[in-house]
Amino acid sequence: MKDGFIKVSCAAVDIRVADAEYNTSNMIKIAREAYKNGAKLIVFPELSITSYTCSDLFLQQPLLDGAMRCLIRLAKETADTDIIIAAGLPVAFDGDLYNCAAVINHGEIKGLVPKMNIPNYGEFYEARHFREGFNDTRYIKIGDKTVPIGGKLLFRAVSMPEFVFGIEICEDLWTVNPPSSAHALAGATVIANLSASDELIAKDEYRSMLIRSQSAKLYCGYVYSDAGYGESTTDMVFAGDNIIAENGVILSRSKKFTNECVYAELDLERLLIERRKATTYKSSGADEYTFIDVDFDIDKTELTRHIDPSPFVPGDETKREKRSEEILAIQSMGLKKRLEHTHAKTAVVGVSGGLDSTLALLVAVRAFDSLGWDRSGITAVTMPCFGTTGRTYNNAVNFAKSLGVTLKEINIKAAVTRHFEDIGHDGETLDVTYENSQARERTQILMDIANMNGGLVIGTGDLSELALGWATYNGDHMSMYAVNAGVPKTLIRYLVDYEAKRTDNEILRATLEDILATPVSPELLPPKDGEISQKTEHLVGPYELHDFFLYHLLRFGFHPAKILRLAVKAFDGTYERGFILEWLKVFYRRFFAQQFKRSCLPDGPKVGSAALSPRGDWRMPSDASVNMWMSELNDL
Question: Bridge-partner residues for 226, per DSSP?
């Protein structure tokens, strides 16, 4: 439960129709196994104690009495397990019969929740036996205990207040207004669904869509337990399609027709952060609910869920290509609008043979093509200086020529040398002035060329560089429209690769492939033996780590310790914990210290859920202290 994680499970049960004792024995066995595997909640299917397909046997008193007897047995024989159990059974109450979920914890039956929506169409005829549930909390005698029963019960963990779960049953989810919506607004972070959804062609796709959608809308964890093998096949077949989802993503899913128990760790801290950030998520109705205490021991949850080391980059190639096209369209359409609005005649891009300027020029070409303008109106300027290598120079030249834009070469060595003389720099000391003078000279040239030709300077800097402040203030930090400002470095590689794969221009493809293979560098220091001497990732650390840190900082505001824990899991086998920790410290120091550069950024399109625009997603004082974050890191 550390860092807001809790392990949950759901299982289809090997059952016999109307054999409550047999079914309960198997549920006890599975609950014990789930407890040993670290789960704090296990959800069983709808009417799991008796089976869902008992039909008119539900009207037989022996079945009802046996179900209640087995519920008491289930509680008693799991009293020594530190797990919460949700199981289904028919319950006779106040002269009516209800399809209920029972919640058990440490040997106690904590509450009963009736199904609110009773299907009576197609293959379902539940209204023949059951009544719709009620919302008000009433009380029922079970053995020698009085137990609350009602549709508005929420179960809250004493030792983990962020774990509050509510229950809905099968059809409840498929309705226009599922009970889970009210549960979540009242405080539930987890929804347990006890279901008996029969299997039909393509129904599994619709089922998963519903679960993903509901978990996304409610910013919740959703634990869906589905009836499986053992139910009557007179008219229906059940597949045991057990699903655990979180905020629109399926974390775990069983193989159908296997009666499998599945597990996943829900990140409740992340869900609550998402709710706080979404100002349209308005909590309400808690006063209409009865909150029931449940509990379990607090321990560190072992993470088995997949932690994506590249959260900005889709792992699936098809999705990645779709995302690439979408991002390029957003960037180019933003630039198109800006060119039209300013009545610009040209676009000016500084090209270095590196990834960022390559992407910026590709976007400019798309914008011009969309406008129907001749590509010659784009001026690509290459400005070699002290650190430029033959490889990057040739790539810049070949790249521009292959696109059919206007190429302009301006060697800035003499201008920068004269500048050194003007300010009294010896030109030999390889300090920050030596580097930044080159960046600012390049920006001045680009701005003046744009002014001469009625154009806009297109910015090349990316989201990762903005996070680290890896840009020269009023140098490459500045432009007239920053098309890459919302794109992280790890994603830029795939955008350029996407364009390389789709072009039929062999020279362009070969050039792009070589640019992709070139080490990332500002090339502000002299090369060694003709090779790049200044490799960015040797100086600020691997961009894949920094992009990982940035994503979890911006999207969720996690503690540094949690980000470290996630990174260690995500990069297991790639980087050691100590290595990750040191670069995480660098990330936080630079992120706070360099905010002043982000506070005066030029306009640029947002393309993803994490962005650093001072007018949009990230508003931070430039003089904020990093001490609290560094103190936590220093204790790790």
Answer: 195
